[in-house]
Amino acid sequence: MISLVVAFPLLFAFFIVLLDTLRVKRHIIQVSFLLGAILPATVLFMGIPKGEIVGGWNRISGIEVGISELNLPFIVGELILFAFVALYSISYFDFRDKKTPKALALLLLLHAGLLGAFIAGDLFNFYIYMEIASVSAFALITFSGEPNSRRAAFKYLMLSLLASYFFVFAIGLIYMETGYLNLILISENAVPSKELNAAVGIAFASLLLKAGIFPLHSWLPDAHSSAPTPVSAVLSGAVVKAPAYGLILMFLALPVGGTLRTLAMGTAVVSIFFGITMALLQRDAKRLLAYHTVSQMGYVLLGIASLNFLGAAYYALAHSLFKGGLFLSVGALGRKTRELGKFGYRNVPIMALSVVMLSLAIGGVSPFIGSYAKGLISSGLDGAWKYVLYAGSVGTLISFTKLNYYLLRGTSEDIKAVWKFSSIFLAFITLGSGLYLGAVFDPKDIIYVVLAMVLFFLLKAADIFKKRAHVGFGEIGEEVNVLTAVFILAILASVLLQGA
Amino acid sequence: MKMSIVVRTTTKLVSPFLVTYAAYLMLYGHLSPGGGFQGGVILAVAVILLITSHGYKKVRKKFKFNWASLIESSAGAMLVLLGITGLAFGAFYANFLPTEGGIILPFNVIVGLEVGAAFTFVFYILLRWVESD
What's the complex ipTM? Predict the structure, then answer.
């Protein structure tokens, strides 16, 4: 039954290509796109079986899929986000363009890939589905038609594929050592050895690259900001979560050393603050949001590295909802220009409300879902690590005060009703799910918001926002070479620290 | 892109045999070395050989671009539907055929069509850039 979650989007993706070749009316294509986006959710309502093996084979030779409390938040976040993205996309992509049905088919493939990765119970299928999602993402980025988008997609393609090859090599090593690909069987048969340690180190570094965490993040801001708006929302909201889920699977099944975990926690903290700092210096609204993805993925890694997988999973759910909503609403406002100060929500109060709500949610203000997820992550941390979360919250709030400050000063025209609906609905979902999960209003959070506002105006008075952070490399080939070298160093570091 | 008469005649002779061999691999792959993917690749090679020797424009008249797309997408949809049919018999991709090899035979044939059409499709698209005759 669980396999149907993947089968429906895949089926409708093929149908859309078929219907496009037969040149049917565009309404039929739109309906089949929506069906492919929403039908997987119905599987969850039919009563969730714990796990199953496709085709009814035994565990050793079959493909195991399952839904547990660890991957349910990922799946729910993806399904909710994708439902709104689907509504948004059918009015975003223009059907006068002949390529539109292809974009819709690729979006469904992305959907199928992500869901398949989230339900996977063995490493190889996880890899395959993550690749389906990544390959569709490379192609989708170029659909925006921006001059920069092809370059961004190429950079993403080179780095992401390189990481994938290293990951599949690590899977090969794990298979060689344990004899299985199924995660339950791996964890039963894993005997610590040098080869296994090397595999863990390589897989860890390659998943970090695909998740866009600090020293390996450099493809992310370009790719996420130059993609079409609905695609940006899925990329930031869900695509970077698949490797994060892979990290959870790896930490669950394999012996990960204490040194590597400490390194991971350090990387996570650096990633949180690096993302915030870079976001503060951006003038492009979507780049600002993209840098926040680097920062927010740091929280997810912090949860994983402190072995608090449930916290990481709920943070991933929260991040899918608010970051997806932010990309959808800011993208709708800034269709003509994305430069801060030149557009805004002054004349559209409904968008203003949704952006403000989503900003509070990402800053971890109660009773939004962000505060619940942050609470879960902080419950697994001890001592000084907790202060990182408080500082991170304030930093995020400063950056979003900046976004709202500039949005308040500009106006935007012709925002379609369905776009307003998607943004405001996602905003209310972040509030509703926070309340549902049991977040209560905490007056202390007002202090954070006020503190963030004060700090924002101090920084503004110090003319920090006039500065521009731009790391230029010139030729794309040169840039990819440098980033590859950084990636190889990261692999070496994690392999050595894991003790191979 | 039109090659000499020797090449054109040879490819014309070889192509039907390649198609036969592809069909053999697809239909007998569940019991012998071979299978859908290999059969599909050889199926595509039969068309690609003709394209390289006779030119894109001439081959396109017989093997239409849209057909490749049509076969590719319908084979993909059939593949998923085959899995969903299995649900009626207990599990996704359950083996519901009592024959030797069960659903592997239809599976291989569909995969062969999918792969063959997809490779031809990719080759057509790449050639649109190279050749404009």
Answer: 0.88
